[in-house]
Design goal:
346 residues; alpha/beta; UDP N-Acetylglucosamine Acyltransferase, domain 1; twelve-stranded mixed sheet; ten-stranded parallel sheet; 5 helices
């Protein structure tokens, strides 16, 4: 079991210790399940109250006015420090450099000696696997793909030919990168396939969740910008361009040739029509259907999506409909009682 002192953790996080710096910590857990020797965290007063009552030996906090019987590690931002400290107590597994005997690697492929290529992988012609890359079991890398340094591909990912993946990017299990875009032309009573001859370009420090599908461009590239994070089960169609540091939450679907600016957030199950432009820092609420361009910085919601202030007005108005219907019925009954035969005579 790993043990590290409160002082060592504070030094790693750029924080300070209130209490005994030599307190040994052997784990990290939420207050509800923390044991003796554990570190827990509290980003607000409610969490701190729970942490105080827990068995934890120390608490990660971001306030400097707290008094406690427990050892405190004060940091500028407890939420950020929480993410950092997890990697201290739960480091990722290390992968031995080299190519597994069952992997099939083309003679024209280039695999850096520091890279790990797992069991039953296929690395096709002229593919390039960079320094310290990890390609786990049963991954298929197509012809002329380039994986830059520090890329991590989890098991059973399929990467179609000519895909470019930037350094420090992670792609999780079951994702398919570079499949044909959904392109057809109707002629002579049938849907004829339009060849998809482009590729996919993924920037550095991108994370792509499990079961994601990113189609290659019909002509040109489908592009995922630097630092963008894509959740599980997302569909990105051909020639979509996604800017830097965007967030795409689970089950988002983006139709062909739509362009997202930087720092865009698409919440769960958002659908975007094709050939749209979504501005920088735009936010789209969950389950919205977007059929129009969105300017920079706006928040939209609903189906069809519209600016959130207008959509909220519609929602509030719709909630008044049952009461309004009752009032109309009462008025109709009063009118009928005054004129039971419904006469139109003046």
């Amino acid at each position: 079991m790993m043990k590290i002192t409160a002082g060592e953790i504070a030094e790693e996080l750029g924080g300070i210790v209130v209490g005994d710096e030599e307190t040994e910590l052997s784990g990290f857990a939420p207050a509800s399940s923390a044991k003796e020797g554990d570190l827990t965290f509290a980003e607000n007063a409610a969490y701190f109250g729970l942490a105080e009552k827990s068995a934890a030996a120390a608490v990660l906090v971001d306030r400097d006015d707290i008094t406690s019987k427990k050892v405190l590690i004060q940091v500028p931002n407890a939420r950020v420090a929480f993410a950092q400290v997890l990697s201290i107590f739960f480091p990722e597994p290390e992968f031995e450099a080299g190519v597994h005997p069952t992997a099939l690697v083309s003679k024209t492929a280039q695999v850096d000696p520091s890279a790990h290529v797992g069991a039953y992988c296929v690395i096709n012609e002229s593919a390039v696997i960079g320094k310290n890359c990890v390609v786990e079991g049963s991954v298929h890398v197509g012809n002329n793909c380039i994986l830059e340094d520090e890329v991590h591909i989890f098991p059973r990912v399929v990467i179609y030919p000519k895909t470019l993946i930037g350094k420090n990017t992670r792609i999780h299990s079951g994702s398919v990168i570079g499949a044909d875009g959904f392109g057809y032309v109707f002629a002579d009573g049938e849907h004829r396939k339009v060849p998809q001859v482009g590729n996919v370009v993924i920037g550095e420090s991108v994370e792509i969740g499990a079961g994601v599908t990113i189609d290659r461009g019909a002509i040109g590239s489908t592009v995922i910008g630097k630092g963008t994070k894509v959740d599980n089960m997302v569909q990105i169609a051909h020639n979509v361009v996604i800017g830097e540091h965007c967030l795409l939450v689970s089950q988002v679907g983006i139709a062909g040739s739509t362009k997202l600016g930087d720092y865009v957030t698409l919440a769960g199950q958002v659908g975007l029509s094709g050939h749209l432009k979504i501005g920088n820092k735009a936010i789209v609420a969950a389950q919205s259907g977007v059929m129009n361009n969105i300017p920079d910085g706006e928040k939209w919601m609903g189906t069809p999506a519209e600016p959130d202030w207008n959509a909220k007005r519609r929602i509030l108005a719709s909630r008044q409909l049952p009461a309004l219907i009752k009032r109309i019925r009462k008025l109709e009954n009063r009118v009928e009682s005054l004129d039971p035969e419904g006469s139109d005579n003046p």
